[in-house]
Amino acid sequence: MSLCPARGCLHVLGSFVCHVDGCEVRLPEHPRRLVVRLAVGEHRMARRLAAACLWPDTDHAARRLRYVLWQLRRLTGEQIIQAGHDAVMLADGVHVDLDEAERLVHRPLSTDTDWSLLACPLLPESDDDEVRAARQRWDRLRLLALERLAHTKLAEGDISGAIDVAGHALGIDPLNEGPHRLLAEANLARHDMATARRVYDDYRADLDHNLGVEPSMEFRRLLRR
After folding, report:
1. 110 by DSSP, 3-state: which?
2. Looking at CB atoms within 10 Å, which of 30, 85, 155, 196 has the fewest?
3. Helix (H, G, I), strand (E, B) or coil at 175
4. How far apart are CA 22 and CA 85, in angstroms?
5. Which of 188, 189, 167 shows the shortest CA–CA distance to 178?
6. Which residue ranges of the chain lie beneath pLDDT 50?
């Protein structure tokens, strides 16, 4: 995990970790859920909505939210969360690794790019609906970024790097053709026809079993060449 550049730091890629002034702070369940919602969303929520998200079936949600905010102030000062009369929000200057990663996917990627954040899923053990939606969006973004990076590495002759990146992309969505085609192309570039063919055949079998369709004509033409 990289050194956090800010006094307050939230890691949501992989496991959830909260740092304040360089020290890890373990949050109870409901304070953690509120912080996670803010970290993976717009970083600001109306108090009414925050209370309803945490306790959808109770008449005392607003009072419980006040207690959660008190817990957060006690544990983190105001380095992570700030609360106004109408809204709760991440404190100014809080570093969220997901924000850093999303900036990375929109930048040009070169062969020396540190792409370790792109290999990390978003809170994979969480079953929160908002986290699931954010995870699906993050997976789409990082899959496309990893494909671009693998193409770049392959074009510049870094075959092993292209294989490594394509392998991580493949793990995000095993039925997406792009990573499989890149993996086959990289193996063809090192004259390993057997492995390239095995990549194609395994993908074709999975695709037929799960969706009842064939790989694209472009993928088939790649193997014929």
Report:
1. coil
2. 85
3. coil
4. 30
5. 167
6. 1-2
Residue-level pLDDT at 1: 45
**Model pLDDT for residues 90-111, shown as the tens digit of each residue:** 999 999 999 999 999 999 888 8
CATH superfamily of 106-224: Tetratricopeptide repeat domain (1.25.40.10)
- Is 143:173 a contact under the CB 8 Å cutoff? yes
Average per-residue pLDDT in the chain?
A: 93
Among residues 223, 149, 146, 217, the alpha carbon closest in space to that of 187 is found at 223
**Whether 178 contacts 150, CB under 8 Å:** no
Alpha-carbon distance of 120 to 122, in angstroms, equals: 7
Element (H, E) at 68: helix 61-76
* Cα pseudo-dihedral 112, 116, 121, 124, rounded to 10: 170
Strands 8-11, 95-96: pairing is parallel
Strands (E), the chain: 8-11, 17-20, 23-24, 44-46, 81-83, 87-90, 95-96
CA distance 179 to 167: 7
* Ordered strands of the 17-20 beta sheet: 23-24, 17-20, 8-11, 95-96
First to last CA, the chain: 43
Nearest to 38 by CA among 53, 20, 22, 23: 53
Output the six-digit token pair for 201: 């055949």
Instruction: For domain 8-96, say whether CATH 1.10.10.10 is its number.
Output: yes
Closest CA to 22 of 6, 11, 38, 36: 6
Domain residue spans of the chain = 8-96, 106-224
